[in-house]
Structures are given as C-alpha cells and as structure tokens.
Amino acid sequence: MMETATRYALHALMGLCMGVILAGIGFADYDELHRMLSLQDSRMLLSFVLSIAVAAVMFLLFKKHFTTQKKMFHPGIIPGSVLFGTGWAICGACPAIVFVQLGLGKLPALMTLVGIFVGVKLYRLVHARYFRWDTGSCST
Amino acid sequence: MTEYWTWWQGGLALGSLVVLFRLVLHRPLGVSGSWLKLASTREEIKSEQQAQAFVSDRALMDNALYEATLAEFGDAVPGTTDLPDPGSQKDTNSPRNSSASFGQHAVFLFFIFIGALLFAFATDRFSLDLELSQTLTQLSHGLASSWVYLLLGGVMVGFGTQMASGCTSGHGLSGCAQGSPTSVVATFIFFICAVTTAVFFSMVLPQ
Q: Phi and psi at residue A106, in whole multiples of 5°?
C-alpha cells in the first residue's frame, strides 16, 4: 500500500518537473517551435540535443544501475514517424506538450488533446484489425 | 517575445530529468505509452481488477500455475526444492517491477499540466487564450479553421506516435540517449518531416 502511494507520488513529482521544464524551455510555444522547425532559431534544438547528450553520458557512466531497454524495429516505425513529424509541425504539440499548452491557458490545445485521443483510439482499432506486428514498447 | 531558458539551461534540466525518471521509476521516460493507457481506460481498469482478484485468490493462482507447469513440462516436473525462492530474486530494476498502473500514468500526465500551470502563475505568463498563435491563425486563414488544423494535427500525432511506438520523449530523449538504433531512425524521420512541413508553411505564410 505504502509502495503504491510512493509510486503515485513519484509519478506526480516527475510529471510536475516535466511540466515546469518543458514550459521553461518554450516547447509549448507554437511560434518558438515553428522558428525551430523552419530553421530560423536553434535555441530549442540545441536544448534538445544537449539533453540527449547529458542523458547519454549519465547512462554510460552509471550503466551498472540501468538495464537497457532498446526499442524494437517494426514496420510501423517509418510511416508512424512520418505521420507524427508532420502532425507535430501542424499542431505544434507532441503528446506531452499538449498538457503544457493547457497549463499555460491555451484553450485551442483542447482540440489537439481531443485529436490525439482520437488518433490513439483509432490506431488501436486499426492495429487490431489490420496490422499484425508486435510493437513491443510503450507498455510500461 | 517571451523570455525562455537558455539552450544550455534547458538541455541540462531536460537531460537530468530523463536520467532521474529512469532512476526513480525504473522505466524509460515516454509519454505516448501513458496516452495509450489513458485511451484504454475501461480495458485497463478491468484488467487491473482481474489481476487483483487473481492475485488475492490463492487457490485460483495455484491452479493456474499448476496447469501452466504441466503444459510446459508435462508430468516430468523437476523437484521444486531445487528451484530458487522467487522472493529472494527481487530485482527492482526488472521490467516486471517497473510497469506502472493506469492510475500512475494518468497522474503523471495530469501533473505535467499542473507543473506548467504553476510555472505560468509563478512567472506571470498565465492567460486564457482562444488563439494558440498568430502564425497558426495566418496559416489556416482564420481562428475557427486553426482549431480544425489542431484537431487534424492531433489525430496525426496520436496515430503516428502509437504506430511508431514512441514520440519526442520516448524515441527522441530516452531512446537516442540509450543509443537505440530504432529510436535514432524514428527521431531522424520525424524531425525531417516536421522541418519539411514547417519550411513549407513558412513559404506559403502570407507576409
């Protein structure tokens, strides 16, 4: 019981930190994102690259403490990434950013939220009906 | 223009969060997986209730384990005294122990919202807006049509991230930091597509 409550609290803490950091960097700002993606401003792109580098170095330094869980390649990776990248540039949000936009008071993000929900539901149906591959991730 | 953190402040903070998340919750940072749980609320709750009932009913569990053992080994079941005690092999970093419940995923997503809300109030940036951005309104030729753009973009993001098994956090941050070839390929593709779309938008944007 205590362990469960602690895990809930830790998830809340991680979510809280993520919301503050993403808002602080400016990932939820449509104009900032548009400037980054249209190669007019490199600040957020450098932040993104540095964060990967920082995490990679820490994972390497402390690899004893982490079990590597590499994602498997399946036929949905390429078409899914194409759809996601295009959609990201259109609505200015990825699955985490939509919550940050709402937290900043951007009401139109409700449409993005509904859209993502519909997209996830739709994929579940399409996958069960037509695709047979094992996606092997995002279940934890 | 709004003042944001410098690139190195943001990079250090976000990179540290990726590691801290892994260290504390024993699973890689990823938001599209949490969305999947959120979109399957009914199934997740039912599944958790069934699992709870299964675990609490000792006889049901013993029967299931016995049947599974027979199915795997037949009658030639090895002596159980040679088998290690499952309780002595507790590994808190194993995938089995790292799986989060539906409620924990929901709490994580809700607190991303709360974190941004607190940040907005603390930095005096909170304002209820019907317009996400003037750029988007110009692109879509009106406020109402910009909401349709957001809906369509959202569907593409939701469908695409599930199909690709990850998003900017799962593939981009966690996956690339761990050197996963799949994540590197996915991140390269979604960045190229996003850049192509944004550059195209910049070209058609009314001056």
A: -80, 95
